[in-house]
Specification:
alpha/beta
Length: 297
Amino acid sequence: MTLEQLRIFVEVAARQHVTRAAEHLNMTQSAVSAAITALETRHGVTLFDRVGRSIVLNQTGQLFLKEAQQVLASARAAEAALMDLSGLMHGELSIATSQTVAAHWLGPKLAAYRSRYPGIKLNVGIGNTADTADAVMNGKAEIGLIEWREERRGVSARQVAIDEMIVIVGRNHPWADGKPRRVEDFKQTSWVVREAGSGTRHAFESMIEAKGMTLAALDVALMMPANEPIIGAVEAGLGATLMSRSIAAPFLKSGSIAEVAVTPLPRPFFLLRHEERYRSKAADAFDAMISTVGGAL
């Protein structure tokens, strides 16, 4: 068994599709299939069930996946330890971030870090808040950046910035008139919301729960996994949504959407680190830089 075989297995398991995994790994489909077959044949197990033309990770594969992820995490930690000997002249830093953080806030920080440490390769993965916290917990990323606290075993969270959440609607929506609205009025319109597990969804649920309401009490017209299509739906008049001001700003400026006169919701951004895994100098330098440059949006 090799680290390369484990890496291939984890990628196929994540996508449950050989061709897509091969494209992501920049390998041929036959090479990926051969690696999976070699693992199964050598150890006399079946990791995937072949259902028609599709593959599905079976129970054996699910158990093995956890072990494979741990081995790869340990290998990355060992590599990071060796890279540290180069004194930040060479190396790689893996960062997982939620969509909202990545959209506007993170870019200048990455540019500043790259300017200071040009020899460090930055590997940034974007998902939702839950995905990001999982990546740090499982060792897939050394640094995590999220916009809502997400508890994970062994993962510490430090606030690095404050975001502001606002309610937005299309310019022809009745709530675009500038008149004050309250959370209690939210039942009067339809809503477009982010998927479960996103920081934006957590923020919205927190906002309405503070007033004794639940999502089930509202007219949720659409649920989507990204901010951009949500803005498009709001522009088209599908309903209202809660969103980061920094993301909504250019659309507010163009006049395609309007801010509703609802008290904004402050929302902290957090930097995640694992408390027990190896901490590379590259990650420590990024952590320190975030503290130095400040967290203004």
